[in-house]
Specification:
single chain; alpha/beta; Aminopeptidase; Alpha-Beta Plaits; 2 domains; six-stranded mixed beta sheet; four-stranded antiparallel beta sheet; 41% helix; 20% strand; elongated; Peptidase_M20_dimer; Bact_exopeptidase_dim_dom; Peptidase_M20/M20A_hydrolases; Peptidase M20 domain-containing protein 2; dipeptidase activity
Amino acid sequence: MLISIESVIHQAISDVSHELRKLSLEIHDNPETALEEKHACYVLSRYLESKGYKVEQGIGGLETAFVATYISTSGDSGLNIGFCSEYDALPLIGHGCGHNLIAISGVAMFLALSKVLDTCSVSGTVKLFGTPAEEAKGGKIVLQKQGVFEGMDLLMMVHPSAAFCGNWHSQASLSMTVEYFGKSAHAAMSPWDGINAGSAATIALQTIGVMREQLKPDWRAHGIIADGGQVANVIPDYSRIEYTIRTGWSGELGILRTRILRIFEAAALATGCTHKVKEEHAYLDNLANPVLAEMYDDIMSVKYHKQPDCNVGGSTDFGNLSHSFITLHGMYDLAGTGVPNHSKEFAKDARTKEAHERTLFAAETIARIAARCLADKEFWSKVQQAHKDM
């Protein structure tokens, strides 16, 4: 009796659904922010080790990053395929982007493809990369710079959203911290002796607001005054802005960055403050492989009886990988409620049984696409050609 690759994948994921549900809830109920995901890293690694896989922790110099590897018993002459798990949470909100589900989706895809390699006698290597700090520090960018992904033929992941889409083009983004340094003084007795760092922060944000009229429709500029002073009767000698800018394409990010930096400098000049800017890693726009994206959308469309909706904003450090590797970043509808990411409502939905089932179907879809890349040389050639054409 012949066993199809699709049935092997479906059964492999179904067999561990209950275990993955427990993992998801464990991570969801113990949210950890960027680079602090010690518990999530531990439970994921421990689970993979319990299944007999070797897990290397602390890869790329990041304590909460890991990689699990499985090589087919038929040999490693086939493709090297990697999946990504994320597991960091948002400050105050928790898993408002559903990274507890992204964590288990990566595990599901890794287990399913490992099963395919042996059951179907397919050569190749499959890896699961535990990638921390997607929300803030760009963990995948750090790992990429350290060469962790070198040698991979294909990198894939899924991400919950308010819709499904394989051909998702994310926004390029850059986050920065701006500090203003002034001079404190008594706000009633001698305000003229002070240099108001809080005013510098206020002027900066107001000026960016005025500039919005000249921003392109797909550009974004948003931030907060994280520290504007402590008490009303003291001129603040320190303030801090947390800011993020985004553009539709990576090539335009530098243009907006220059304008924003000039505004930050102008606010310092206007108030007499000095200032310092610290920039995080720039997130590049996600470049979807059209051949992989089409197969993803076809499977998801049959399941949910509707067409993909790629009108989803946001940024991801996975975009940086898409500029160097063949990739697929599949978006899927979390719960059919239309609730946006980065909200408490989304975090609540990310704990539901419905979200769990949708996550595993998306993971199964990605695993099927990965398996086809392994087994169908003609299809893989089309994927490679599409990547070259991009």
